[in-house]
User: Fold this.
Amino acid sequence: MQRTVLVIVFTLFVTITINAQYIPDVLSGYEQKTIQMKPDYEGEVFCTLVRKPLLEHVDKAVLYVHGYNDYFFQSELGDSIQCYGYNFYALDLRKYGRSIRTHQQPTFCKSLDEYFADIDSALAIIREEGNNHIVLMAHSTGGLITPLYLDSRKDSKVESLILNSPFLDMNMSWFMEKVAIPVVSFLAKIFPDWIVEKVGLSSYAESLLAEHKGEWTFNTSWKRPQGYPKKAAWLRAIHQGHKQIKKGLSLTCPILVLSSDKSFAESKKWHEEYRSADIVLDVNDIQTLGLKLGENVVRDTIPNGMHDLILSAGPYRKIVYSKYNNWLKD
Assistant:
């Protein structure tokens, strides 16, 4: 009897979630749906599905997952994807962007698999809305979460995976990666709320923001120029994810791994190279570890690409979109 009641409650929850109404989004021409998830160690949890109004007679869709200290604001991406004949969706994960609540630590998690339920819910809604062919697309930390998700969901029926500068390894010194990070990861089991970094550098944000050196506008409360404080438990979650990648995954779907053609070390001083290189991750790590994801990986580089390739200067992001278009047509 008790089990029957639980099944009914769960079914009602899923039905209410899937049938919740879309409302206009903060991005013009987009709409959003708030999805209430199971509460976690901080209380109520939500994620947010953003979409462009659906195309008629189209049963294909792309679901985009953002990176760390990020949210979906790249409307040009969604516009382009629809021009390729796909419906477009983006997911603001729990504790990011549209999904942040006042009782939560933004961007915080204790394990990357906390996000798997968010992706499950998004995919269920996308299929409920008539899309039978779904491509996952992800950037940076999203590019770490999504292959781990697919590795844990062998029956996800996702057709392919597109990764934009995936966060497959730390971009730090040998000592930090081989000694300091593992030690902090171990201690995180005892001191999960230990703040290991208060804020980061703002150079990357300055290279993007139109009010500084870039050409983009975004909500700096959701995507902070210096980021959010990083806690030991979050670092452990990332470290554990990286260890899984290095052991190798067994994904069978086609995977496209894209990165810039070069990296450049970030510092407090401004350098023009910030606008034509990845200053967050090591592109050699991306290209090398990309092969660890599965048996059908295609790797490519974008000349003068920035960390988020679709925020690169106009001529170079056109190359990114051309590669996306060719991939989705195949």
